[in-house]
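Running low. Invent one:
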Amino acid sequence: MTATNTEADHISMRSGYWLATIGTKNVIDGATPLVLDAIDAMDLNASGAFCFADLGCADGGSSMALVRKSIEAVRAGNKSRQFQVIYTDQPGNDYNALFAIIHGLEKGPEPTFLDAHEGVFVSACGSSFYRQLLPDNSLDLGFSSTAMHWLSAKPCDISGHVQAVGASGCELAAFQRQARSDWETLLHHRAKELKPGGRLVLVNFCRDQQGRYLGHTEGADMFDTFNAVWQAMLAAGQITEDEYQRMTLPQYYNDVAEFSVPLMDGSSPVYRAGLRLESITTKVVECPYKLDFRQHGDAARFAENYIPTLRSWTQSTFMGGLNPQRDAGERATLIDRYYAAYAQRVLEEPEQHGMDYVHAYMVIRKE
């Protein structure tokens, strides 16, 4: 095992993330009632601005409707209360795209909420959620969707696969240890940031009770396909053995028990810091591109729409696995070749492919 990469060094979301990943917006839309219920349970007449944080925001497009509805819900309880939105992500995030979308300078899924509401203040924090992002007792509601499966560090490379769902033995154990430590760390930071009575609504990729996970609900397993295409490039001599091994996604999908333990165990530092699990449930949201394909039946159109969503969140890690001594143009060509090979598999058996989303939906309260 080789330990590499802290703070997910090679991870970044491609520009135009919300447009390439329509499914993430569908997931957030499905979580919106939980957020509105959480707001309804709070004391909206408290002094000061209502502070809302989008943790792992990418370009902010996917959560625009959620933020607007949250503003409206707070104003319904206190029409004069100011509202602060803090977008957080890693330092390498495309914050130019974020602010362009939020200010209506680039296309978003709907008009900017800034034009509809006075007294709304937007800022960004370019730090990982594995750090404390906000002052103690300053956050009313923290929201995160499809982000906290990224680990703070890659504990090892995985032999013969690219993601922890294909790991076993000591390699799997290393990912489990890292995921457990990271989950407790980020929760402990949120416990400091939250005001008493504040809430977290977290929507995280998971392994559900039926063993399903992202891209593994029916048909071809998405991560097995990622791995098979990468292995084919190794067999063809296009990449080296070292490059194949280095391409390990620093991710882990908790199950319900793994999510729940630090929030229910009285001896846990997270529990002692005041966080309580109010609810947790799992849900599958079908891949929108697969659903469209069932209607139009055009395999080429399906591949053309589907591959960019895979590329949006994997390309930086595949690029990071390539030898940095390769010419930049050569590396770009190899990455293009990789996704073209994946697209060919979709063209050959389109009905086998799709990226259904499998999430745990959690509501957490600070005592």
